[in-house]
Amino acid sequence: MSRYLINGGNPLRGEVSIRGAKNASFKQVIASLLSPSTTKLLNLPDISDIHLTESIAKSMGSQISLIGNHSIEITTSKITSTKVPSGTGDKSRSSFMFAAPLLARVGEAIIPLPGGDKLGARPLDRLFDCYRQMNINIEEFDDHLRFTTTGLKPVHYDFPKPSHTVTEVILMTCALTPGESIIGNSAIEPEIDDLICMLNSMGAQIKRDPTNPKTIIINGVSSLHGTEHQVIADRNEAVTFACAALSTKGHINILRVRPRIIETFLQTIEKMGAKVTRGHDEVDIIYNGGLTAIDIETQAEPGFMTDWQAVFSLVLTQAVGCSSVVERVFPYRFQHIKTLNDMGAKTKFFNPIVKDPKDYYEFNPESDRPEYFHGVKIYGPSKLKPCHLSVSDLRAGAMATLAGLTAEGLSTIEGTEFIERGYERLADRLRALGADIQYIKT
Predict the structure, then answer these.
(1) Fewer CB atoms < 10 Å away: N or C end of the chain?
(2) Do domains 3-19+233-440 and 22-230 have the same CATH topology?
(3) What is the rounded distance in angstroms from the CA atom of residue 138 to the CA atom of residue 159?
(4) How far apart are CA 118 and CA 391, in angstroms?
(5) Contacts of 63 (CB under 8 A, 6+ apart)
(6) pLDDT tens-digit profile of 322-336?
(7) Residue 128, SS3?
(8) CA-derived radius of gyration, the chain
(9) Which fold has domain 3-19+233-440?
(10) Where are the domains of the chain?
(11) pTM, whole model, 2 decimals?
């Protein structure tokens, strides 16, 4: 198990360049399988989630060549297997997304049950509901799913609640489905628009309704060709470095990211007192004296992203006053709060009083549990003490790393392979900003 050794307490200062988005790039590797021609993907992050997705693609017949450190050429002239290898489902939720190109090209997909971070049930019921309307048969077994079709049919489907990943799977499937498909109440994250851009450059005909961007119209085509596409910047990584600047009372210039894709976050920290300067493809973050407490709720785009709340919770421990975080996207995503409490933070769980939880929360009601809390109050500022802990979640692991940099003294973070799922060479890049951090691979 790999680990970080951190001597914290130093403000981070300097410049950092943002890599391609994890949550866009692995899906675009999968989307390339919709065509038998060669696709070139640029700005891919060098992280384990991408390598896992590439290995699954190779098992299905893809030929992949590395071009430099962050670009690949991928060609899948023929699908040689319709089965995603067993064991991949519990490592990443990318496995079930392969159903789209497999169904579109050969009419069958055998997928291990999906996994990824333990954040509560994924809303696959929405995918199943839409797929059944597209003439796709779904068989559920103890350890895998089997999708089959005798011919895809166009669909008019309205999401009961938006789903980022399921929207993308349906888009990929409909791209090669004859006729017009209309998807209503879809997710509107920038990673989805980046996928649409890539698919259209391959010959797809996909557009958002200009009067209602949550409605996506797909005119299915008979085939797609290859393309060259550059992956959008990783907004989660950009927010992580911004939180590193604020929690350590530093100053970081974040390069190669369009500020508009993290605008909700930037407006939030400006309200707290941080100094933010926006450029065309960069943003400057400065700790500008004391931060004031603030209340946030995680929501789908354009709201405050759920993936930001762990690292942002650390920033709130350094703000003056009582802040609150309400998690509306997942039934429970506060695993990182115990870490903060062990390090000296002061927090209190609560459940918001809402008129209609079914409308207020974006997760399915059956995913909830009586013991789950959906809100936490964070009291600050707190002087954090160093920690020795093991992480098992990507975003909570990033938070623990930043907490170790914030606290004075020696911290040890075990299980950094979870962090490496989404952050390329994080220790090296933090060290370039002045962090005293060592990466020990075992």
Answers:
(1) C
(2) yes
(3) 19
(4) 12
(5) 74, 75, 76, 77
(6) 999 999 999 999 999
(7) helix
(8) 22
(9) UDP-n-acetylglucosamine1-carboxyvinyl-transferase; Chain (3.65.10)
(10) 3-19+233-440, 22-230
(11) 0.94
